[in-house]
Design a protein that fits this description.
This protein is an all-alpha fold. It contains eight helices and no strands. The chain has a domain of about 130 residues.
């Protein structure tokens, strides 16, 4: 069939081979999935780093490390999505998100302070900071991913509009943090 035959045929559109541009759409979808997987890996890596901060014996120093880790995670996500990074803007977004979840912030602060009590306080504080810090880091990361996936920039990210998503993702983050913690535990040796 020639090009002129296709024009003349009433079923010409059905008989034509797929357009060359249709591969571009498939490639774009594949690239989007790949980018999302990379973004999830960035978040998971930063969740593991955040959880390790529970081991820092100095109270409140772990909180500063958590904040810095979350800013570094946002920087990595910004780079992945091609969004210009502004450290001061990200710091204010992270503070606004975390402070919107006061119970979570209270748990982290009290857990960090519990490290002042020798023995059991240090053990409790370390564990609570690990899980809660990992969950909050996960929540922050998922907010940035959702915003960047929708094509948003840092200047357009409104923490007040993202609070509900953040709180939901912190709940999801507790599950993720518990799974990461479970993977880190050595398995019992069977006799």
């Amino acid at each position: 069939m020639t090009v002129t035959d296709r024009k003349a045929s009433p079923n010409a559109a059905a008989e034509m081979p797929p357009a060359a541009g249709s591969d571009v759409t498939a490639e774009a979808g594949c690239a989007s999935v790949t980018r999302r997987v990379q973004a999830d890996n960035i978040v998971k890596n930063h969740v593991m780093v955040a959880m390790s901060f529970g081991l820092v014996p100095v109270p409140l120093f772990d909180l500063a490390l958590l904040s810095g880790n979350q800013v570094a995670m946002a920087s990595a996500l910004s780079g992945l999505y091609g969004v210009p990074f502004e450290k001061q803007k990200v710091q204010s977004i992270v503070i606004a998100l975390v402070s919107s979840a006061l119970p979570v912030l209270g748990v982290i602060g009290l857990s960090s302070g519990a490290k002042l009590i020798p023995g059991i306080g240090s053990l409790f504080g370390s564990g609570a900071v690990a899980v809660t810090g990992g969950a909050v880091t996960y929540g922050v990361g998922q907010v940035f991913i959702a915003h960047f996936e929708s094509g948003g920039s840092l200047l357009e990210l409104d923490p007040a509009k993202m609070r509900a998503l953040f709180k939901q993702e912190v709940r999801n983050g507790k599950v993720v943090a518990a799974e990461v913690l479970g993977q880190a535990k050595p398995e019992a040796v069977q006799p």
